[in-house]
Amino acid sequence: MTIGPGLIETATGSGGIRPRSSVRGATARPGHDKRGLWIAMYPFHWVPADGRRHASLDKRPWGNAYPSGMLVSTLCSQEVVADATQEAWLWRTCDDCHSEARRVAEAVLKVPRMSV
């Protein structure tokens, strides 16, 4: 489901809102997709922990995920221990992290872009 320019909402596996760049056929680089829509790259990442999928601004040490056991600060102002298991990605999204992630995403989309 499309939320707005550069955003989609996913049903499972990602934590709710993802950049449109995750959609098959779109570019993974910041910029415009094939239809001319701006693709936003957000400063937060999703991490399953404490029975919910949380959003965090913490840097990931490697790859695309926080490793299991890593202490992570979340957008809901908690410190949680990451759980990188496949099942953990099926947990519900933390409502407070979701609200804050939307606020951050909307702020990113409002930043003026330079044309190249």
UniProtKB/TrEMBL annotation:
| Pfam families, sorted | zf-HC3 (PF16827)
Lineage top rank: taxon: Bacteria
Question: Keyword annotations for this protein?
Answer: Metal-binding, Zinc, Zinc-finger
Which source organism does the UniProt entry give? Saccharopolyspora flava
GO terms (molecular function) for this protein are: zinc ion binding
Specify where the region named Disordered lies, as residue ranges.
Answer: 1-29
Gene3D superfamilies, sorted: Malonyl-[acyl-carrier protein] O-methyltransferase, zinc-finger motif
Q: List the InterPro entries hit by this protein, alphabetically.
A: Zf-HC3
Q: What is this protein called?
A: Zinc-finger
